[in-house]
Design goal:
The complex is a heterodimer of chains A (about 325) and B (about 260). With about 325 residues, chain A is mainly α. Chain A contains 14 helices and four strands. Chain B is globular, with a radius of gyration of 19 Å. Classes of the chains: A mainly alpha (about 325), B alpha/beta (about 260). The interface of A and B includes residues 207, 210 and 222 of A. Bound molecules: adenosine-5'-diphosphate and magnesium ion.
C-alpha cells in the first residue's frame, strides 16, 4: 500500500523529481512531438482516465466491483451535450453540471444497489447501463432517440472579459490534460484523507471496520456517488470532443474498458490507472490504423497481464519508481 | 444516581438461528470498572450473545441498555462510535495489507473526526488530528510490544501478534466497555501474559470495563471478579470464579451432559 511508505531505508540518489519533470514535459510537448493521430489517441486515453479514476476509488480502494461507470459516463455526455446545444453554456459549466448530474443519479441507484451482496451488486450495476441505453433510445423528445445529439459545439470558455473556443485537436489535448491532472490530484487527495484510510479498511475487512465505528454503508454510498461524478465529467469531455452523443455511449464495452484500465493498471494505485489508460485506451486507439492487428494486440496485452502481472502493472511501476528514487 | 446503574444491562435476550435457540432468555449486567467472564462449552451461544449485544446481529427479543441508554437495534458501527462499547472477534481479524500503525489509526478515526464529511479533508486540522492519533497509536504499540513490527503489514504477523493489534485497536477510542471473544485462544504463553497485563492496565489506568469469553480457566480466575456460565443458550450459573469451578452443574455441562 502506498499509504504507508515511511521507510527509514538508506537512500541512493533520487532521480524521481527530474524524471517527473521529464514526463510532464513530454506530456506538454506531445502535440509537437507526436502526429495528429497520436494526440487523438492521447485525448481518448485522458477522457477514459476520468471514469477509470472514479472506478479505482470504488474497486481499488473500497473493494466494490461496479459495471455502472458507462451509465454515468453516458449521463455526463448527454447532460453536457444538451446544455451546450440548448443553452450555449461555457464548457466548465457543462462539465460541472454533468458531474453533479451523474453523482445525483448515483444516489437513488446506490441506495438499493449497495444493500445487495457483491455478485448481485455487480449484476445490478450492469442493469444501470442497459437501462441508461434504453432511456437514451426511447426518451426521444429529449435525447432524439437513436439519432442522438449531434453538432455539440466545441468547448467554449468565458473568463471575465475573455472568451474563447477550444477548437483544434491540440487545444483539446491541453484541456483534457488539465482536467486529467486536476482529477488525478482530486483522487490523490481523497486517497490520502482519513476517508481514504476508511475506504481501504472497508476493502480489507468490512465487519472489522464497522466494529471500529466506521459507518461503512455511508462511505460506500459516498464513494459510489463520487465515482459517478468522475465518470460524468469524463462524459462531458467525450461529448465535446466527438461533438456527437448517441445511445451507444451507454455500452458495456465502455464499462469493461474502464474496469480493464483499473484492474490491468493495478487496482488501488493511482499510477496504475494513469498507466492503464495510456496502455489500454491509448494503445487501442493508436492501433486503429491497423485494425487487423488491433484486437490481437489487445488480446496479447490481456494475456501478458493475466499470466505475468496478476496485480496489474502498478506494482512494477512502483518498484521502478522507488528504484529511481534510490531505495535499495 | 447513575453510578448505581450497571454500565451494561441486558434483559431477556433471545436469538434463534432456524430451529437452534442460540441464546435463550439470557439476562446479564456489567458494573462500571468490572472485569467479568463469560464461559461455557463450545456452541453454548457466547459469541451469539456478543453479536446481539453489539449490533452485529439483531436479537429476536430482549433489550440492551448501555450507560442508561437503550441501544437495542442500533448498528454495530453506531454502538461502537456513540456507545463506546467495542468488541473483538473470535476469529482474529486485522486490516491485513495495512501496517500496524495504520491499523490503529483507523480504529481511532471515527472517534476523532466529528462527521463523515470531515474525514474527506486533508487540511491542517485534519492532519493534526491524524498526528494526534499516530502518537496515541505509537504509545499503545509500544505497550503491546509491537514496536519493532509497527511498519509491517498486519497480515504478515503471527496470530498472537494480530490478536494484540486487534486488542490495541480497541483501546484507541477510549472505550467504556470492551467485549473480548476468546482473546487467548491459540496464542503462546508469552503473549497470553502480555494480553493479561494489557487488560489489567486498561482496566486500572484507563477505566475500561470488560466482558471476556475465555476457555483458559487460570486466566479467568486470575482476572475476573465474576463469572457467568452459558449452556445451550441459557444462563446456567453466575458467581465468583472459585465457586463456579466447583459448581457441579458447570462441571457436568463442560463434560458434555
Ligand atoms: N450465523 C449463524 N447462523 C446459524 N447458526 C449459528 C450462527 N451463529 C451461531 N449459530 C449457532 O448458534 C449456536 C451458538 O453458537 P456460538 O454463539 O458461536 O457459540 P459459542 O461462541 O459459545 O461457541 C451454535 O449451535 C451455532 O451453530
Ligand atoms: Mg464462540
Amino acid at each position: 500500500m502506498s499509504l504507508t511508505q515511511t521507510s527509514e531505508r538508506a537512500r541512493r540518489r533520487d532521480y524521481r523529481i527530474p524524471l517527473g519533470i521529464l514526463l510532464f514535459s513530454v506530456a506538454l510537448a506531445a502535440p509537437f512531438i507526436g502526429s495528429r493521430y497520436v494526440v487523438h489517441a492521447l485525448i481518448i486515453a485522458l477522457v477514459f482516465m476520468l471514469p477509470a479514476h472514479g472506478l479505482n476509488l470504488l474497486v481499488g480502494y473500497t473493494g466494490l466491483l461496479s459495471l455502472a461507470q458507462a451509465a454515468f459516463f453516458g449521463i455526463g455526455a448527454y447532460t453536457a451535450g444538451l446544455l451546450a446545444i440548448g443553452y450555449g453554456t461555457p464548457f466548465y459549466v457543462n462539465a460541472v453540471v454533468a458531474g453533479l448530474a451523474a453523482g445525483a443519479v448515483a444516489l437513488p441507484l446506490g441506495v438499493p444497489a449497495l444493500r445487495l451482496r457483491s455478485t448481485s451488486f455487480v449484476m445490478c450495476t450492469l442493469g444501470f447501463v442497459i437501462i441508461g441505453q434504453a432511456i437514451a433510445k426511447n426518451w426521444i423528445s429529449v435525447t432524439r432517440g437513436d439519432m442522438g445529439l449531434s453538432g455539440i459545439p466545441k468547448p467554449y470558455f468565458e473568463l471575465g472579459p475573455l472568451s474563447f473556443t477550444v477548437g483544434g485537436t491540440t487545444g483539446f489535448y491541453y484541456l483534457a490534460l488539465a482536467i486529467g491532472i486536476l482529477a488525478t490530484l482530486a483522487v490523490f487527495a481523497v486517497v490520502r484523507s482519513p476517508a481514504g484510510r476508511n475506504m481501504v479498511a472497508i476493502r480489507e475487512n468490512e465487519t472489522l471496520a464497522e466494529s471500529l465505528g466506521v459507518p461503512t454503508w455511508h462511505y460506500k454510498l459516498i464513494v459510489f456517488m463520487l465515482s459517478a461524478v468522475f465518470a460524468g465529467v469524463g462524459g462531458s469531455l467525450y461529448a465535446h470532443y466527438l461533438t456527437v452523443v448517441s445511445p451507444l455511449t451507454f455500452q458495456m464495452y465502455y464499462s469493461t474498458t474502464m474496469l480493464i484500465i483499473v484492474l490491468g493498471g493495478g487496482a488501488g494505485m493511482i499510477s496504475g490507472t494513469i498507466f492503464g489508460s495510456l496502455l489500454f485506451v491509448g494503445l487501442t486507439e493508436a492501433l486503429r490504423i491497423t485494425p487487423e492487428l488491433r484486437m490481437i494486440a489487445y488480446g496479447l496485452c490481456l494475456l501478458v497481464l493475466v499470466f505475468w502481472f496478476k496485480q496489474g502493472f502498478a506494482p512494477v511501476i512502483n518498484r521502478v519508481w522507488n528504484a529511481i528514487g534510490g531505495a535499495k | 444516581m447513575t453510578t448505581h446503574l450497571p454500565l451494561l444491562d441486558i434483559r431477556n435476550l433471545t436469538k434463534s438461528y432456524g430451529a437452534v435457540k442460540a441464546v435463550n432468555d439470557v439476562s446479564l449486567h456489567i458494573d462500571r470498572g468490572e472485569i467479568a467472564g463469560l464461559i461455557g462449552p463450545n456452541g453454548s451461544g457466547k459469541s451469539t450473545f456478543f453479536d446481539c449485544s453489539t449490533g452485529l446481529a439483531r436479537p429476536d427479543t430482549g433489550t440492551v441498555v448501555l450507560d442508561g441508554q437503550d441501544i437495542t437495534g442500533w448498528s454495530l458501527n453506531r454502538i461502537a462510535r456513540e456507545g463506546r462499547m467495542l468488541r473483538s472477534f473470535q476469529k482474529t481479524v486485522t486490516f491485513r495489507s495495512l501496517d500496524v500503525e495504520e491499523n490503529l489509526i483507523i480504529a481511532g478515526q471515527m472517534f476523532t473526526f466529528p462527521s463523515i464529511l470531515s474525514t474527506f479533508s486533508i487540511g491542517k486540522l485534519s492532519r493534526q488530528r491524524i498526528a494526534g492519533l499516530r502518537e496515541r497509536a505509537r504509545e499503545l504499540i509500544r505497550m503491546a510490544g509491537l514496536w519493532d513490527v509497527r511498519h509491517q503489514p498486519a497480515g504478515n504477523l503471527s496470530g498472537g501478534q494480530q490478536k494484540l493489534i486487534q486488542f490495541a485497536s480497541m483501546l484507541m477510542p477510549e472505550p467504556k466497555l470492551i467485549l473480548l471473544d476468546e482473546p487467548m485462544a491459540g496464542i503462546n504463553p508469552k503473549i497470553i501474559e502480555r494480553v493479561v497485563e494489557t487488560i489489567l492496565y486498561a482496566n486500572k489506568s484507563l477505566g475500561v470495563s470488560f466482558l471476556v469469553i475465555e476457555h483458559n480457566i487460570d486466566v479467568v480466575t486470575s482476572i475476573c471478579r465474576r463469572v457467568i456460565v452459558l449452556d445451550q443458550g441459557q444462563k446456567l450459573a453466575e458467581g465468583l470464579p472459585q465457586d463456579i469451578i466447583q459448581d457441579q452443574r458447570v462441571r457436568e455441562a463442560y463434560l458434555g451432559g
